């Protein structure tokens, strides 16, 4: 769980140092990371939250946004926005047909100061 304003990332990869570990062929030691961002439009009192994804892998990370049938490969080392309800696929490129791939769904839920939705 990420808290607004925290500098903490959720790291995903094969290595034991990751928050989410997935020891499967094609997943890099530190495959990608997610960070919660909070902001508002200029002059607006409405606060919004969104996730940012940074892919640092060799075999890529796929991003499938709601309403789009196929995932697309995220550009390596360039942060991109991950909308609520999006799915991440690790690795994006599998070495051979039938290889296992991790699928994560991102759900952004506002919570109170005690972490309750």
Briefly, what is this?
The protein has 117 residues and is mainly beta. The protein is 0% helix and 32% strand.
Explain this structure to me?
With 117 residues, the protein is mostly beta strands. Helix content is 0%, strand content 32%. It is built from no helices and nine strands. The strands form two sheets. The chain has a five-stranded mixed beta sheet, with no helix packed on it. A four-stranded antiparallel beta sheet has the order 6-5-8-9, with no helix packed on it. Strand 5 and strand 6 form a beta hairpin. The protein is globular.
Q: Numbering strands along the chain, what is their spatial order in the largest sheet?
A: 2-1-3-4-7
* Run of helices and strands: EEEEEEEEE
Strand content: 25-35%
Q: Using DSSP, what is the number of strands?
A: 9
Q: End-to-end distance, in Å?
A: 12 Å
Main pleated sheet: 5 strands, mixed
Uncertain segments are: none
Judged by helices, strands and strand pairing, the structural class is mainly beta
Mean pLDDT, to the nearest integer, reads: 82
